[in-house]
Design a protein that fits this description.
Layout: H1 2-14, H2 18-42, E1 50-56, H3 61-72, E2 76-82, H4 85-93, E3 99-103, H5 107-112, E4 120-123, H6 129-156, H7 161-168, H8 185-206, H9 215-244, H10 252-276, H11 281-287, H12 293-297, H13 309-315, H14 324-332, H15 341-364
Helix pairs in contact: 2-8, 2-9, 6-7, 8-9, 8-10, 8-14, 9-10, 10-11, 10-15
Length: 386
């Protein structure tokens, strides 16, 4: 511990230039700030009170009762009820409404005479996953309203309640979401996005490290950056859990170890890019942008089962397949340390491979322990990095 603190002090004294101080501060603070902002943005999910506009072409008493049931449902916030479809277009164009319901002219007549009666539902598909979740919520709510409405009509015709229920819904079913019963989209997305941002930051800061004198010092600097990245990552998780009630139901040690090994491996990846570019920090940082694509290839936002087979094969080699994907599972479903041990072992192997790759590149660069080569970028006031 004393040696680590000594190394940290040495690094702090050497990091007087903005090219490394600012990236370190960004890595430490930016993810936690984003965690607070994004948590405040998504804290009200799952969807309730979706701004809805109703276009009603049938002004019968029957339809007025249906509109009242829609208005009373907590899923919808009916902001307007009109008979002009142009009002619906305008509401969507100016983002005043996220859902629209159009009731045709002869809806009640068709309904009462046994003909097929349909209403049309619109939702804003530009919101991607938000639209998907909202569409499911709206469909579920309208299904409940439909059953209640039909039951009310049947009772109005003198049919006993139980007989009406058996007639309207002869087969019942119950659905239960095991991992995310609240159907909160943020639970499925937030932590993976934040932890990927931390990885990008760790890789970029690692790309600013240009040590050509001693491989041991290079590893110590990588360890220091890893510590900063881990504090940032765990700060995001603690913020989400304590401030916004996001769940975490599994062993904390599995999450901590996975975070440490992932941050260390990604930091070494950034250092490897710096070594590969001969100390050109700007080019090395640009190459670290590839880290952002691993979230997609790991199947975090797009299911692996729907990918073509080459992508399925590559998925296993993505660090995030063994980090953010199981981390989400640990947050939503109770898992033991042993059940996640294979992911921890994979990440340990990833770190070992990166250490060997950095060591080979360090040796190929012509650096010798305790000596800085004449062509090293550090020969000119250390402008290439710490």
């Amino acid at each position: 511990m004393r040696e680590w603190m000594k190394q940290a002090g040495s690094l702090a004294s050497s990091m007087k230039k903005r090219y490394i101080t600012i990236p370190m501060l960004i890595l430490l603070l930016a993810p936690t700030i984003l965690s607070l902002l994004m948590g405040a943005e998504f804290v009200h999910l799952p969807f309730q009170k979706v701004p809805t506009i109703i276009v009603n072409h049938d002004h019968s008493e029957t339809v007025q009762g249906l509109i009242q049931m829609i208005s009373d449902n907590r899923t919808f916030d009916v902001i307007a009820c009109t008979d002009e479809e142009d009002d619906l277009k305008e509401a969507f164009y100016y983002n005043k409404a996220l859902a629209g319901i159009v009731i045709p002219e002869h809806f009640s007549e068709d309904l009462l005479n046994g003909r097929e009666a349909k209403i049309m539902i619109f939702n804003d598909g530009a919101l991607s996953t938000v639209a998907s979740g909202m569409r499911g919520t709206i469909a579920e709510a309208l299904g409940t309203i439909k059953s209640g409405y039909m039951l009310k009509l049947a009772e109005g015709k003198g049919i006993p309640p139980q007989a009406a229920m058996n007639l309207i819904a002869p087969m019942g079913y119950v659905t239960k979401a095991i991992s995310n019963p609240s159907k909160n989209v943020a639970y499925m997305m937030m932590e993976g996005i934040l932890l990927t941002i931390v990885q990008i930051g760790a890789g970029c800061v690692g790309a600013c490290v240009c040590e050509r004198g001693s491989f041991g010092r290079l590893m110590k600097k990588a360890g220091f950056i890893t510590g900063i990245a881990c504090v940032s990552a765990l700060g995001c998780i603690v913020t989400q859990t304590l401030c916004f009630g996001f769940p975490y139901k599994s062993s904390p040690w599995a999450g901590i170890l996975m975070t440490v090994f992932t941050c260390f491996g990604i930091t070494l990846f950034g250092i490897l890019q710096n070594l590969g570019t001969g100390g050109n920090c700007e080019e090395a940082v640009q190459k670290c942008s590839i880290i952002s694509f691993t979230m997609l290839l790991a199947g975090y936002t797009f299911p692996v089962i729907s990918m073509p087979w080459p992508c399925k094969f590559l998925t296993w080699f993505m660090p995030n397949t063994h980090y953010i994907v199981p981390f989400r599972d640990m947050a939503l479903v109770e898992r033991s340390f042993l059940s996640e041990a294979h992911h921890v072992l994979w990440l340990m192997g990833f770190c070992a491979v990166m250490v060997l790759a950095v060591a080979k590149k360090f040796r190929d660069a012509g650096a010798e322990p305790g000596k800085t080569p004449a062509d090293s970028p550090l020969t000119e006031s250390g402008v290439a990095g710490i």
